[in-house]
């Protein structure tokens, strides 16, 4: 029987390096399949856990606590074990120019020349989702920073990961099945880019909160306070057992694309055709 896990490399916000930069790895029978985000501390934890660069990374957004590990990842891929395949980077299409500006837009990635930053990777721009290892991953916009700059990811039946976001109850409800964990940004206090505890309690039903595992908080003390409020709190090094993913088909991927036709209203995303 296949064993699926979600390993938390880090759970902290940008001001909490002691908690590790927020990131998870999807594992199949202990083997890493997909890393979500690549901050500095997260990459360190990944290399320590698996002894090799991640085979694939999904990028939720390009704030530095989520992408600062890419220069080291370039070095590991470009100068490391060339027998390993290049890391696949699944990047929402609107983020590609932003990521270029953050990590790749400078001359001579190596002093000797003759190399481009993206030579060390297989870059895959994505929109509503992507295929990886015969699994379909849904991608959806979230409420962080400004519209069109941050995204979450869901492996149907297995897990949902919001990335950095304000509450998005309609989107979460669209994917939730009553069983799979919903990994959600949350700290004690919210702001225009992140969910606070009062936001979570106000915007989500008790049923959805029971499925949630929260992360991206500011300190060990904040995590303890979230736990006292009745939430399941992720900690660095936690390994979350997952239900088996639903079998994905091309028809499923097409149906999701139809359901997730987003309209931007008043500077925010709202989803239509939700059933």
Written description of the protein model:
There is one protein chain. The chain is of the alpha/beta class. It has one domain: Ribonuclease Z/Hydroxyacylglutathione hydrolase-like (Metallo-beta-lactamase, Chain A, 4-Layer Sandwich). The protein has nine helices and 16 strands. The strands form three sheets. The protein has a seven-stranded mixed beta sheet. It has a seven-stranded mixed beta sheet with strand order 7-8-9-10-11-12-13. Strand 9 and strand 10 (159-161) form a beta hairpin. The longest helix has 11 residues, at 40-50. The chain is globular and about 55 Å long.
Brief synopsis:
The chain is α/β, with parallel strands linked by helices. The chain has helices spanning 40-50, 64-67, 70-79, 96-104, 169-175, 197-203, 206-211, 220-228, 250-259; strands at residues 4-10, 23-28, 31-36, 56-58, 87-92, 121-126, 129-132, 135-141, 151-155, 159-161, 182-185, 212-215, 232-233, 239-241, 262-265, 268-271.
């Amino acid at each position: 029987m296949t064993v699926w896990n979600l390993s938390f490399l880090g759970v902290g916000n940008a001001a909490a390096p002691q908690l590790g930069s927020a990131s998870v790895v999807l594992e199949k029978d202990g083997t890493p399949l997909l890393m979500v985000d690549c901050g500095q501390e997260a990459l360190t934890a990944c290399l320590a856990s698996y002894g090799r660069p991640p085979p694939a990374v999904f990028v939720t957004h390009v704030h530095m606590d989520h992408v600062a590990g890419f220069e080291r990842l370039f070095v590991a891929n470009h100068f490391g074990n060339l027998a390993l395949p290049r890391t696949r980077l699944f990047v929402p299409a609107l983020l590609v120019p932003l990521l270029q500006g953050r990590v790749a837009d400078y001359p001579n990635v190596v002093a000797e020349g003759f190399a481009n930053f993206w030579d060390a990777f297989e870059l895959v721009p994505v929109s509503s989702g992507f295929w990886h290892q015969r699994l379909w991953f849904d991608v959806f916009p979230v409420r962080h920073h400004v519209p069109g700059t941050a995204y979450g990811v869901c492996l149907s039946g297995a897990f949902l990961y919001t990335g950095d976001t304000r509450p998005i109850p309609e989107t979460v409800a669209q994917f939730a099945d009553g069983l799979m964990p919903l990994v959600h940004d949350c700290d004690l206090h919210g702001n225009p880019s992140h969910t606070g505890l009062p936001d979570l309690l106000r915007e989500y039903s008790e049923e959805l909160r029971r499925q949630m595992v929260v992360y991206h908080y500011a300190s060990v003390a904040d995590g303890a306070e979230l736990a006292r409020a009745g939430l399941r709190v992720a900690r660095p090094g936690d390994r979350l057992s997952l239900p088996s993913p639903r079998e994905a088909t091309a028809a499923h991927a097409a149906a999701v694309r139809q359901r997730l036709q987003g309209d931007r209203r008043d500077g925010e995303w709202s989803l239509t055709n939700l059933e």
